[in-house]
Structure formats: structure tokens, C-alpha cells
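Subject: mismatched residue count in predicted assembly?

I count 786 residues in my input, but I want to confirm that the predicted structure covers every chain. Input:
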Amino acid sequence: MAFIVLKFGGTSLADIAKIEAVSLQIKREIEFGNRVLVVVSAMAGVTNQLVGFVSGITSYFDPVEYDAVVAAGEQITAGLLAIALQKYDVPARSWQAWQAGIMAQGRPMCGEIYKVNQSLLLVDIEKGCVPIVTGFQAISLEQRVMTLGRGGSDTSAVMLAAQLGAERCDIYTDVDGIYSADPKWVPQARKHDVISYEDVLEMASVGAKVLQVRSVVAAMGQDVPLRVLSTFMDQPGTMIVHQDKIIDQKPFSGVVVSKNEVMVKISGQISTVSLMKEIGSLGLTIDMVSIQSNYLVFLLQDTEALRVKYELERKAEMMGISKIEFLKDIVKVSVIGLGIRSNQDFLSIFFESIGQVTSNILSFMATENRASVVVPTLNGEAVVLALHENLGL
Amino acid sequence: MAFIVLKFGGTSLADIAKIEAVSLQIKREIEFGNRVLVVVSAMAGVTNQLVGFVSGITSYFDPVEYDAVVAAGEQITAGLLAIALQKYDVPARSWQAWQAGIMAQGRPMCGEIYKVNQSLLLVDIEKGCVPIVTGFQAISLEQRVMTLGRGGSDTSAVMLAAQLGAERCDIYTDVDGIYSADPKWVPQARKHDVISYEDVLEMASVGAKVLQVRSVVAAMGQDVPLRVLSTFMDQPGTMIVHQDKIIDQKPFSGVVVSKNEVMVKISGQISTVSLMKEIGSLGLTIDMVSIQSNYLVFLLQDTEALRVKYELERKAEMMGISKIEFLKDIVKVSVIGLGIRSNQDFLSIFFESIGQVTSNILSFMATENRASVVVPTLNGEAVVLALHENLGL
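Triage response: the counts match. Full output below for your records.
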């Protein structure tokens, strides 16, 4: 008998019919002889609706109140799923973050769970009851609601699995596993049976939307095996474990595309150090940084572009910036895998593949297990297909 | 400088524009020199939507989980209103029931507040901050969410006003006060400047939807003056105080119509006592009870009719019931006021007025300050108009 944490995302709980289907899925897991704890997201669309309400009032909202508003969605699904389980004779109860004593620290809107009142939940489980815990939310030291960032329910599930000593954390979503490429772009994409935390982390960092980056970091750090699988298909999904537990490790895990990027070029008599400090203080995640004597280039999520423009233009003179340019209509294509450093032919295959499609390479970088290239959006799909085929993915 | 509790209903908070308007209303109140605490309902329609989700799963839901689900709506408006107030430079923060220590006892779905952690809220107010408290919800001894019944935010506001020693509780809604009749039915209806708790209580009991019955009981018992006024019109509204504080008391306060009624007739060799006990155990509110040797007649909300039919038919044989009939398409028309016992001409005017319209009187009863008659729906409007005019309302 194993103890498993099951996490269901918003698309799995999008309406009453789906919530009932999820409850039968949970019931099956229990009938296999497992004990379970369930973590839920908000119904698909609800969090976006709540965020819309907040930003409809002002862009300069109090992040603590933002958290109080957007955390409501999980509360609804937790109660509904408990009711659905009871309907199928499975004892269940909902737990909000304050009831389960899920404590977070850090900044509002992206809090980090550091403690869970295990005993409360374990007593529930020992009574044969299924705890349905609201994901995405925790409580701050000041007894306010603190959310964990978009996709934060994944992190809630991993942290609960770690703190309660679960054997595994199953992330149920609308895809049936982790693929070597997005099947919408690459019909031949292959599903992984098993993949390493490291590669999934790299995939998530460069734009794959399977799991929240932080949840993978937490799972890796706390040694919680993750499984990504579909709520709607009876498929085993993809297991995520430590690299050294994978016997037949493939050199390349996948090709990932990130679409919502802009390339920023800042020119002038700039001090790179103070400019990077400034960018860091805006809480931005930037990538593909290239530094030259009189300009700096990097990639940024396009939703952040306006804010960066505003902030840097205010300080342009002080910082020696003479020009800020934004290049749109680009995509970042990344190859992930240990083959990047270990396979001697990698670079030639990589550039050969891109060269088949375009000579317009806007930026390139490589690390131990990732190689990324920026190309015009119109070449994106062909580049992905060429890389996927030529690297034998 | 007065300390006032302001309560805003769902229609006052129905969208972002209205939430902003409410925040300006609160700001004005503060600029008058008052200190305020605000209680909010869910946005109009949200609670119904959540109730719909629950009953979409099953009719036999766990009431505790129902409460966990439907309480989410108030959390959203509390956060949004705090953000809107901050936008207009009014320091504010949202308080959920568990944060404010609002404790309830009794049954889920209709809990009763018995304690509020005053010090937390008072500290906030003394700092010059406006607490925005979620109405309709409290916390049970078991640390679960407990809601207070439909319209329960009124009761939250009254209980907070009582426990924190507020001078007054202002109930902001979509009508600008309490009228002598529904202006939709009676264009000549008159708005009360002042009215007694007793009359409002009676009005609410017989179907007027201005305030939750329990909130009026609480206000009367704890001596909290209530004011009902419109969020959208700059009108003084209606003050509700003790009878003995009203100098110029009118004999009649109003004519109230209750539409969603069915008349139930139970025949057979029945024991009235055991039948009434059975009905009581179903948690029903019944009215206009008439007992004869071999039948019992009463009025019931039509939403309860199916459940009563089901429960009584199961026990029909045991209880000596030979027949259960339901009469629909009826309305209950009630006159409220102390004139019912004090005015010697009342009964003749009352029946004369009804006789002008119909001779089909299905039931009648009178107490000290209320007289009710049941007539066919098609005569309802004419009966109300005749009573309103002939009683000089």
C-alpha cells in the first residue's frame, strides 16, 4: 500500500462532469489499495477571471489583496471535489491552506512553502478520509493568504508529498506525459516513459508549460518522484526521477519552443553591471544575454516589455542608455539533453539543421544540457521539425 | 466622530465599476469624519453560481463542504474592494472570517455568530485602516467554514456592529429604503423615513426581501440601529429603531406579498401533534396553519414542496395520512402594523377591500401586528392595491 499525492489541474476540473470523472479516478486509485491526498487547482479560467477583476481596478494593486482574491478559486474546487467523492462513497473533506497550516514565506504572489502541519492531514488520512487540499495558496507569518505564482498548485502538491513522506506525486493534467516536442508542432513527437528532473527543469525554464519550474526544483531537492499523466486517458504518463536512476538515458530529451519572447537591445555608454542590477531589481527573468562593449541584448517575456521600457527610459540618461530597441516576431527554440556536452557531433548537426531552414540566426547559447537559438517566428516550426528529425529525437 | 458598520450587498458589488463606486461612497463617509468597518456580500450571481455547482453534483451534499464552496464569493469582493479603496488613497485590508476570528455555532448553512475577535479589527481601525470583512461566513468550533444562510451578510454586519460597539449599521442595497408596498406593484407606495424593528421583522417573515429575518432579530436584541439605503442614489433611506423611539407611529407599515408559496392539505386519521413534529424535524418554516379534526392545511415555500411530498409519502401509512394535496398559483398578502389590534375598523376595511376584488379567500389569519390572506395569484395585485389605498398606507 503506497501513499500518493494526486494533483489535478484546472482543465481536469473545468466543469461538474469533469469533477465527477476526477472523483472516480481517485476512487480507482484507492481501490488499488493506495492511500491518497489530493491537491486541486481552480477550475480552468477562474484564476484568469479573478486576475482580470483585480487588474480591472488598477495595475498598482496591493499584492497581498491580489492573493486574497485569486486564492478563492481553489477553495471552490476543493469543496466540490469533496462532495463528488462523498457521492461515490469515498470519505473526503476539503482543506484550505489556513486549515491545513500550510505556511509560506517570501513575497506575495510568489510565496514559498516552508512548513505544513502534517499531523492534521495525517490524522485525516489515517481515518480513511481523503484530504482535498487547495493548491496555489499558503498562509504568511502575518496570517494573510499568500499565493505561489502561476502553476503554483504543482508546487503545493510536491511540498505536501515531501512533508508527508509520500511515495510519489502524480500530476494529472490535460496532456498524457512529457514529449520530445509539442505534438501540435511535431506529429512524430515521442512520449517519454521516464525523464530526469534536470531535463524537465531545463524544459520548463525555456518555455515548456508542463510543470511550474519551482515544483520541479522542489521535487528534485526533496527527492519526490513525479509522474505527469492525463486525467482523460488511461495511460501511464511520464515518470520524472533522478538522472542516475534512468538506465537507458537518451542523449536528447526534447525540442522546446518559447513563443512569447521579445529581444531587447540596449545601446549607449552603459555600465553593464548597473544595468543588470537594475533589471534584476525589476524581478525579471531574462535569457540569452549577450554583452558587447556598447550594447546589451537579451530575451524577455513580451508581457514584461512595456514595463521594462517605462522603467529604463525613466533612467536612460542616468545610466548612459542612448537607445532601447524591441525586436518582436521571434521564437526561441531549445534542445535539451546531456548529449549537448557529450555528443561530439551535436553542434554540427544543430547548425546544419537550422541552416536547412534559415540563415537568420538572431542569437545562440549553449550550456551543459541546453542549446537555444532565436529565429524569426516564420521559421520556427521548420527549425523545430528539422532539429527533432536530425537529432533522432 | 461616529463608528459605523457599512454593509454592501451583491447588486452593489456586481462589477468592477460598481466596486469602484462603492469605494468612493466609503471614502465620502470617512471624509464626513466617521470611522467605518465594511462588510461585503459576494458579487451578484456568484453565490447562485456556486450553489448551482454543488447541486449539479448531488442533492445530498455534505453541508460543511457546501459552506466551504459558497463562502468563496465574499473573499473575492473583500479583496477587490480593499484594492479599490487603496486606489483612492484609503488604507484598507480584507479580512476573512478565520482571520477576524468570527465564530459561529449551530448547523452548517445557517450558523449563528456568537463571538468576534474584536481586538484584531479594532487595532486595524485605530490605525486608520478600513477593515473589509467577508459577510455570510464564520468559523465553526471545528475550524471549518460555516455560512449563515442566504442574506447572511446582513447578520454578519449587525453582529460586527454589536460586538464592536458601532453607533449604527448601514445596509446598502439596490432599493433606497423600506416601502409601504413593493413599488413594482403599487406605484403610490410610500418610503418610510423610520420604522420599527418589529414591523420590519414581520415584513421579512411574511416575504419581504429587504433584510434577512435573523439580522433584524439580532439588531433588535442587541439594540443596533439599522439603516437601509441605496448605493446608487444619494437618499437618506429608512432608519430601523425600537418602536418606542418612533414619535409619529403610523397604524400600518406596509402590504407585503409573498409569491413562492404552495398550500398543502393533508387529510386522513392524522395525529396533528406527531405530524407537526415530523414537519418540524424537516427544518421547514410553515405559515397559515389551520387544523381541523381530519385535515391540516398550511403554507410552504414552493422550493420545499417536493421534499415534503417525498418525506410524508414515505411515512403516510404510519402517520394515518390518506391524501396529500398541493395548491399552487396562490399568493399570500399581509398587512403589517400595530393598527391591526388597535384600529377597530381594521377587519371591516380589510375584508371590504378584498371583497372588491374576489370572494375566493383561501385562508386568513391575524396576530397583533399582522393580518395575512391567501388569494389566487391572478387577484394578488388588485388585492394589494385595494388594501394599500383603503388602509391609507
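The longest strand of chain B covers residues 321-336. Marking this ticket as 'not a bug'.
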